[in-house]
Amino acid sequence: MNIVILTGAGISAESGVPTFRAADGLWEGHRVEDVATPQAFRRNPTLVQQFYDQRRAHLGQVVPNAAHHALARLEAAWPKGNGFDFLLVTQNVDDLHDRAGHNHLVHMHGELNSALCTRCGAANPWRRPLLDNPPCPACRQPGGLRPDIVWFGEMPYHMDRIETALAAADLFVSIGTSGAVYPAAGFVAQAKAAGAHTLELNLEPSAGTPLFDEARHGPATQLVPAWVE
Ligand code: BV8
């Protein structure tokens, strides 16, 4: 019995982490698509570094919620091996799933708590601001660190592992995502093609809802623990 779970910003909303497309989907007047691109970083590195420095600092004020903890309990209880496997794929760049406790977790869009060196390619655990151009811990060169975030137009991380898991999935559960961003929005179709049962747990119908065998709507902190139990 192989399960693949995909989460999006909606699972962290009740922890106080803003979603992308709530209200008008703007951040200080900027569309995410305008600040989360390599072009934006080249054009205005200060704006982009500030965008991520602020979100990284905010992690210190939020904690995992009942939905994060329920998924951690599910992974701990899920058998591994002999036809059983568990993979949690998150689009989120916050560390709330990590803090809830997981071993089978991948961040396909990168992480706020990591800094990527454009000089040597190293990804470094990182919690401080990047705005003041600190040296890379790996190569010691200054001025090369960027947020270790997958921007629009960049290739998401862990795609081989994700596609392999989707091809073998018996159950695919999507939690708290609008189904607006690819390739994540295409995972339900890939799981379905592999014969998986597909379930959506989301506050309201999403762009992908028609593709799911089953959809339940409500807040993640109610839907996810109820589903896990
Ligand atoms: C790539 C990091 C190619 C940044 C992010 C057409 C087809 C295929 C692709 C494209 C296409 N057109 C354009 C593209 C490319 C593009 C794309 O999909 N654009 C969209 C806008 C159309 N995709 C890419 O560029 C991707 N890369 O395609 O590479 C390639 C191939 C080869 C070689 C090189 C390149 C990269 C996409 C990654 C972008 N980075 N994040 C950052 O975080 O700052 S995406 C960003 O949006 C976040 O990661 C977020 O996870 C993601 C999706 O948003 P959601 O998580 O779903 O959040 P959202 O606010 O939208 O929705 C929240 C949901 O929760 C809602 O449904 C709401 O109802 C629900 N909710 C709210 N509260 C609750 C709740 N649910 C439960 N309980 C609650 N309390």
Automatic annotation (TrEMBL):
Cellular component terms per the entry's GO annotation: cytoplasm
Positions of substrate binding: 52, 55
Cofactor: Zn(2+)
Catalyzed reactions per annotation: N(6)-acetyl-L-lysyl-[protein] + NAD(+) + H2O = 2''-O-acetyl-ADP-D-ribose + nicotinamide + L-lysyl-[protein]; N(6)-succinyl-L-lysyl-[protein] + NAD(+) + H2O = 2''-O-succinyl-ADP-D-ribose + nicotinamide + L-lysyl-[protein]
Single GO MF descriptor: protein-succinyllysine desuccinylase activity
Catalytic residue list: 109 (proton acceptor)
Keyword terms: Cytoplasm, Metal-binding, NAD, Transferase, Zinc
UniProt entry tagged with the keyword Metal-binding: yes
Keyword Transit peptide included in the entry's annotation: no
Binding site for Zn(2+): 117, 120, 136, 139
Cofactor note text: Binds 1 zinc ion per subunit.
EC number(s) per entry: 2.3.1.286
Alphabetical list of PANTHER family matching this protein: NAD-DEPENDENT PROTEIN DEACYLASE (PTHR11085:SF4), NAD-DEPENDENT PROTEIN DEACYLASE SIRTUIN-5, MITOCHONDRIAL-RELATED (PTHR11085)
HAMAP family membership: Sirtuin_ClassIII
Annotated family: Belongs to the sirtuin family. Class III subfamily.
Function, as annotated: NAD-dependent lysine deacetylase and desuccinylase that specifically removes acetyl and succinyl groups on target proteins. Modulates the activities of several proteins which are inactive in their acylated form.
UniProt-recorded name of the protein: NAD-dependent protein deacylase
Organism (species): Sandarakinorhabdus cyanobacteriorum
Name of encoding gene: cobB
